[in-house]
């Protein structure tokens, strides 16, 4: 996905000019999001479908931009489910995630979801109680926690090791026996979300190959009438080396070759990606308020911080940014030096990038953090210190919507 840095710089300057205080904001490039998602979906081979994992970013303009471009939405709570159903009454919805309340399952039955991704035998029992009495039916997938030879280790591994996610394959027979006794719950296939932050297309293809083989084995061994495999999300974004991203084209080519196998033709293959779809369209903007040297290191103290943009702290990386020349402060500037970019919080953990080389940096300049459109604002500890929220600035060609939350 292309960054439109000139457009972002123009909008950043406009926001800065409109504010007497130093500025911080999220900028979202909606046309770029639409193009990116269209490109991603267009390359997927038949019979694959891309759903969007709402947890990555549930801002309304983002959801609106995605609706109609993805096959539907994956929700992981009653809150996400209600949000999507209120906005899109007809769109296909998949309801996954651990720890579903009986009231959330009940809401899913009431509002209608295409599939529930069931995480445990207890959840199956809970669902069965809700479906009784009567002849109501609900399609499900069983989410499995599978160990495979080709499960790479990333910073966010959710399967193949002891985690609270999914069903241990040792318990599959018990779940299938329960389903035999409860015909209202219709097993349509299996769900896997084993890792996030996958950056290697070949490794992901090997993993999917394992999943397909395993599902076929279960289908034959248990004589299952199933037609769906959900392979989860987990395609990563390379924050450390932004020039080297997951090779989606290579991945889709390899997937097409795998899916040409006649045994797999019965399956609809579903993805539910979050980060890979929305991270590139978002930018977090901070204005430099102070430049100070402390025990031999330079710090740029900026408006905002990890209470708005926790992604680098959560992932432990130096987040990539671009310097935009700003309003000009009191003349203090650094040239060709290393600097740590920090926010306004009273904690040494409020760091967005550590000792990175800058060509030039002045008070009043703005730092534009790229790849900030997923797991960013919505995973941040927004009320810590009670600083105001950033401006949410949605750029849609000539139409620019400002939603000032401050
Ligand atoms: C079950 C499930 N599906 C999909 C996703 C989306 O993952 P990602 O944003 O890495 O694509 C997650 C993320 O945690 C998840 O837990």
UniProtKB/TrEMBL annotation:
Record has Repeat as a keyword: no
Molecular function terms from GO: diaminopimelate decarboxylase activity
SUPFAM superfamilies with a match to the protein in the record: Alanine racemase C-terminal domain-like, PLP-binding barrel
PROSITE patterns to which the protein is assigned, alphabetical: ODR_DC_2_2
Active site positions, chain numbering: 346
Gene Ontology BP term (one): polyamine biosynthetic process
Orn/DAP/Arg decarboxylase 2 N-terminal domain: residues covered: 33-279
InterPro entries: Ala_racemase/Decarboxylase_C, De-COase2_CS, De-COase2_N, Orn/DAP/Arg_de-COase, Orn_de-COase, PLP-binding_barrel
Cofactor(s) needed for function: pyridoxal 5'-phosphate
Keywords: Pyridoxal phosphate
Residues modified to N6-(pyridoxal phosphate)lysine: 55
Protein's name according to its UniProt entry: Diaminopimelate decarboxylase
């Amino acid at each position: 996905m292309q960054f439109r840095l000139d457009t972002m710089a123009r909008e950043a300057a406009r926001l800065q000019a409109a504010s007497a205080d130093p500025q911080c904001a999220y900028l979202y490039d909606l046309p770029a999001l639409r193009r990116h998602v269209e490109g991603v979906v267009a390359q997927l081979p038949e019979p694959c479908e891309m759903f969007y994992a709402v947890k990555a970013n549930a801002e309304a303009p983002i959801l609106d931009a995605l609706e109609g471009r993805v096959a539907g939405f994956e929700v992981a709570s009653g809150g996400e489910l209600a949000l999507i159903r209120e906005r899109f009454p007809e769109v296909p919805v998949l309801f996954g995630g651990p720890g579903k309340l009986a009231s959330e399952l009940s809401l899913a039955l009431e509002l209608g979801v295409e599939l529930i991704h069931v995480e445990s035998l207890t959840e199956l029992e809970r669902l069965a109680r809700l479906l009784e009495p009567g002849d109501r039916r609900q399609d499900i997938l069983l989410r499995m926690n599978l160990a495979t030879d080709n499960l790479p280790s990333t910073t966010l591994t959710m399967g193949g090791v002891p985690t609270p996610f999914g069903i241990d394959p040792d318990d599959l027979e018990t779940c299938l026996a329960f389903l035999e006794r409860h015909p209202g719950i219709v097993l349509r296939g299996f769900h896997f979300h084993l890792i996030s932050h996958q950056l290697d297309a070949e490794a992901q293809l090997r993993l999917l190959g394992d999943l397909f083989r395993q599902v076929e084995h279960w289908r034959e061994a248990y004589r299952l009438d199933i037609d769906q495999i959900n392979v989860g999300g987990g395609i990563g974004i390379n924050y450390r080396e932004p020039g080297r991203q997951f090779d989606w084209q290579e991945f889709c080519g390899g997937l097409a070759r795998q899916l040409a196998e006649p045994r797999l033709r019965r399956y609809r293959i579903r993805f539910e990606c979050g980060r890979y779809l929305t991270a590139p369209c978002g930018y977090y903007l901070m204005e430099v308020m102070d430049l100070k040297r402390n025990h031999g290191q330079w710090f740029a103290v900026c408006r905002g911080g990890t209470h708005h943009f926790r992604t680098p702290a959560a992932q432990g990386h130096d987040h990539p940014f671009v310097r935009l020349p700003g309003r000009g402060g009191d003349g203090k500037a650094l040239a060709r030096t290393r600097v740590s970019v920090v926010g306004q919080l009273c904690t040494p953990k409020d760091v967005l990038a550590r000792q990175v080389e800058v060509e030039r940096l002045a008070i009043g300049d703005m730092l534009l953090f790229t790849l900030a459109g997923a797991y960013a604002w919505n995973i941040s500890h927004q009320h810590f210190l009670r600083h105001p929220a950033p401006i949410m600035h949605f750029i849609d060609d000539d139409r620019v919507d400002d939603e000032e939350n401050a």
